[in-house]
């Protein structure tokens, strides 16, 4: 564990299961593409997941979907429903004012996972994003905020595991690390992504993320997404950054003042 070298077969199997779970059901070819594994490898992974009861083949067609057994993998994980409950009215109010959708995301491993969003509350969106959607931590505004406000030891641990990962290009990682300006993000209180390449509409949106805290410790990132064609990033910052920060501050205040009996 000191070197953090992952077991490649397990990593690939998890990638396949995540892809199936995210899309609802996939063909074998789609599983291979989504998990970025050779077709024969995808076949072996699917056979294993079928044997373990984590997926099943749909009747009358060769597509595979997750079973209810997948839910048992999360029984030991305590959902922080307090975050969603408290943030929800604030982000809905922000979208009502600004028009643009916002999301709340937390770090899960080396990815950012959406806990809630207002895409369904806005017409200014190409796609709807729901809880569970993930983004790479170094290629998203929310991920950059999460990395910047993480403890130095925690941030280095994440980067160390990414460096030994077999599915991450080291040249890309080196470039991403250099571009992660931790001190600037901490000083300015926000991070940006000029073009989002790992969402459902690659290259068509930009985003601004601000941190949410609980009792002074980073809790989540709040991100506003807008069309690249609608305005420049500098214009978006000038127009919406103050409101984003004020909204995040209000959420942070409410999170930090939850009565002990309700936490």
Automatic annotation (TrEMBL):
IclR-ED domain sequence ranges: 69-257
Record Pfam families: HTH_IclR, IclR_C
Residues covered by the HTH iclR-type domain: 7-68
Keywords assigned: DNA-binding, Transcription, Transcription regulation
Name of the featured protein: Helix-turn-helix domain-containing protein
Lineage: Bacteria, Pseudomonadati, Pseudomonadota, Alphaproteobacteria, Sphingomonadales
């Amino acid at each position: 564990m000191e070197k953090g070298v992952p077991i490649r077969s397990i990593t690939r199997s998890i990638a396949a299961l995540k892809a199936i779970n995210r899309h609802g059901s996939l063909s074998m070819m789609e599983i291979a593409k989504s998990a970025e594994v050779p077709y024969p490898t995808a076949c072996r992974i699917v056979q294993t997941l079928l044997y373990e009861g984590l997926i099943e083949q749909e009747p009358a067609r060769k597509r595979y979907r997750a079973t209810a057994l997948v839910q048992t993998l999360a029984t030991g994980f305590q959902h922080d429903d307090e975050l969603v409950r408290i943030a929800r009215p604030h982000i809905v109010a922000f979208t009502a004012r600004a028009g643009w959708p916002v999301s709340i995301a937390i770090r899960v491993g080396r990815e950012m996972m959406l806990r809630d969003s207002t895409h369904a509350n806005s017409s200014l969106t190409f796609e709807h994003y729901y809880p569970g959607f993930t983004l790479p931590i170094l290629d998203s505004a929310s991920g950059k905020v999460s990395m910047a406000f993480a403890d130095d030891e925690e941030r280095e641990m994440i980067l160390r595991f990414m460096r030994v990962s077999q599915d991450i290009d080291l040249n890309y990682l080196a470039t991403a690390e250099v571009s992660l300006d931790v001190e600037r993000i901490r000083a300015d209180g926000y991070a940006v992504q000029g073009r989002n390449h790992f969402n459902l509409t690659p290259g068509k949106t930009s985003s601004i993320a601000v941190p949410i805290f609980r009792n002074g410790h980073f809790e989540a990132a709040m991100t506003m997404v807008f069309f690249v064609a609608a305005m420049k990033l500098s214009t978006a910052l000038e127009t919406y950054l103050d409101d984003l920060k004020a909204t995040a501050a209000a959420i942070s205040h409410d999170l930090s003042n939850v009565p002990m009996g309700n936490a």
